[in-house]
Design goal:
The complex is a heterodimer of chains A (88) and B (423). With 88 residues, chain A is an all-alpha fold. Chain A contains four helices and no strands. Chain A has one domain (3-81): Non-ribosomal Peptide Synthetase Peptidyl Carrier Protein, Chain A, CATH 1.10.1200. Chain A has helices at residues 3-17, 32-35, 40-54, 69-81. The relative contact order of chain A is 0.20. Chain B contains eight helices and 18 strands. In chain B, strands 8, 11, 12, 13, 15, 16, 17 and 18 form an eight-stranded mixed β-sheet that branches. The two termini of chain B are 38 Å apart. Classes of the chains: A mainly alpha (88), B alpha+beta (423). Chain A binds chain B through residues 8, 11-12, 15-24, 33, 37, 39-42, 44-45, 47-48, 51-52, 57-60, and chain B through 126-129, 146-149, 151, 153-155, 241, 244-245, 248-250, 252, 254-256, 297-298, 321-322, 325-326, 329-331, 349-351.
């Protein structure tokens, strides 16, 4: 997946747990958990949804690298380029 | 209309998922209703065939109103369980055999009796947007969605509302008399000049009213006593981290699941915490139906039940919790989950403050609270070190138990969390 596709995957996962979010209003460089009032359960649901869509395994210790929209997309893109999601 | 919690007096039938003549099985979702708190999927409590739909979509009716008739047992020789333990079964809603209008052999009337609003159900609409559409009188079928997969967002609805008319009616007031609305949107009424367009404030207000009246009743009637204890979470979290390393994303556990499981185990040792205070007596619950207080996006909270938590493994509890939280926040809870938890847990989560003193949900007799897990100085074996610590609190009904029992209960929760591999 390219950057835009990965971004769409993350946004879809976000709006799935928080349907009231207008994707256009997400600030890509601010902590999503604070910005959108996402708790650990929501976050887990987002990670699960992203995993399902991309096949990328996201270890728990990497969660802090996914806290903003831009960071999450960059993380997923790097993971794809490493081939982590090659079998997806 | 089933009673989905002690605080519910009315419900609005939003959508039928079945029509006359449809075969249904126990547990099937037959309708979606709106309490003042949430949209709830109503499950049927028996097998049968739908007779007549007695309430049209969009109608608000008091709890106890029959929604439809059901002819029992068709297509399935097995009779429904005799003691129908599903809470919904004890409400007059969907009461099958006793409904005169549908004798067992009568031909089913043709479906067109109940007009279905076109298209609407097939659209992807967030609950917030749906509510906004109702309040603004916007036909969702005419709204172009800008969300993912064309989902309609609240902003889309508001744009559509502005495009159609600058001022639109507010939703029917929370205490309005039930009206037979055959159209999904309330009839427009003129707004006072200069008034702002309706916001979901009405709904938020209705929810506050419902929470307020239940909590006021609790504080008025229940002599609460409160206990608290600090629990060292280092073993539990170390075990959790280790365990999660081995697990794929979808199977990972959160600390909340351990806390819930510890409560369930402790209830087994202290059944006096698990049940209801009704008519001046404690009625122990059969099974542990663990209420989980879930904060909703945009405010308010709801405490649906994880049923038969005492028969669930840790993985099942976690899966159940994950599913429940997601559906609570996206507006797709089921009626059985809304009825009669036997003890409730409120967990502030990692963003929460140190501790919470809960208010018991009547007619339950206990509420367990967990604050955020924090690294704290902790003395053990003559040494002080830093450990992750959670403060567990108990609010319990003094009519049903005493501080001694409560203290043993909290201590048991602590013990359980020191042996996480046993949870």
């Amino acid at each position: 997946m390219n950057q835009q596709e990965l971004r769409d995957v993350v946004i879809r996962a976000l709006t799935d747990v928080a349907p009231d979010i207008d994707p256009a209003t997400i600030d890509p460089v601010t902590d999503l958990t604070e910005q959108l009032d996402i708790d650990s359960m929501d976050f887990l649901n987002i990670v699960v949804a992203v995993h399902k869509q991309t096949g990328i395994e996201i270890p728990e210790r990497d969660y802090p690298k996914l806290l903003t929209l831009d960071d999450a997309v960059a993380y997923l893109l790097a993971a794809e380029q490493r081939g982590a999601g090659a079998d997806a | 209309m089933p009673s989905l919690g002690a605080d519910m007096e009315y419900g609005t039938l939003l959508e039928w998922r079945v029509g006359p003549g449809d075969n249904v099985k126990r547990g099937d979702i037959v309708a979606v209703i709106d309490t003042s708190k949430a949209e709830i999927e109503v499950e049927i409590f028996q097998d049968g065939v739908i007779g007549q739909l007695l309430v049209t979509e969009g109608t608000r009716v008091p709890v106890g109103t029959a929604l439809a008739t059901v002819r029992a047992g068709a297509g399935d020789g097995a009779p429904p369980p005799p003691q129908a333990s599903e809470p919904i079964a004890v409400t007059p809603a969907l009461q099958a055999e006793t409904q005169p209008p549908a004798p067992a052999e009568t031909p089913v009337p043709p479906p067109p009796a109940v007009p279905r609003p076109p298209q609407v159900h097939r659209l992807r609409v967030s609950p917030v947007a749906r509510r906004a559409a109702e309040q603004l009188g916007v036909d969702l079928a005419s709204v172009a969605g800008s969300g993912s997969d064309g989902a309609i967002t609240k902003a889309d609805v508001e744009r559509a509302a502005e495009a159609v008319a600058p001022s639109v009616p507010p939703a029917t007031p929370a205490r309005a008399v039930p009206e037979s609305a055959s159209a999904p949107a309330p009839a427009p009424t003129p707004m006072p000049p200069g008034a702002a367009p309706a916001e979901p404030a009405d709904r938020a207000a209705a929810m506050r009213l419902a929470i307020g009246s239940l909590m006021a009743r609790s504080k008025r009637e229940i002599p609460h006593y409160y206990l608290q204890t600090q629990i060292d979470m280092s073993r539990a979290l170390a075990w959790l981290q280790e365990e999660n390393l081995r697990r794929s994303v979808a199977d990972r556990l959160l600390p909340s699941a351990l806390l819930l499981s510890a409560v369930v185990e402790a209830v087994a040792a202290m059944p006096a915490m698990n049940g209801f205070w009704i008519d001046d007596a404690f009625r122990p619950a059969e099974g542990v139906h663990l209420g989980v207080a879930i904060s909703l996006r945009g405010g308010g909270l709801i405490a649906p039940a994880l049923h038969d938590a005492d028969h669930k493994s840790l993985d099942e509890l976690m899966a159940g919790l994950r599913d429940l939280v997601k559906r609570a926040r996206t507006g797709r809870l089921r009626s059985s989950e809304m009825s009669d938890p036997s003890i409730t847990v409120t967990n502030l989560g990692e963003q929460g403050v140190d501790l919470v003193h809960g208010v018991i949900y009547p007619p339950q007799v206990a509420l367990v609270g967990f604050g955020g897990i924090r690294e704290q100085p902790w003395a053990a074996d003559g040494m002080i070190g830093a450990r992750p610590v959670v403060i567990a609190t108990l609010a319990a009904d003094h009519r049903a138990s005493d501080g001694h029992a409560g203290s043993r209960f909290l201590t048991e929760i602590d013990h359980q969390l020191q042996e996480p591999e046993e949870l």
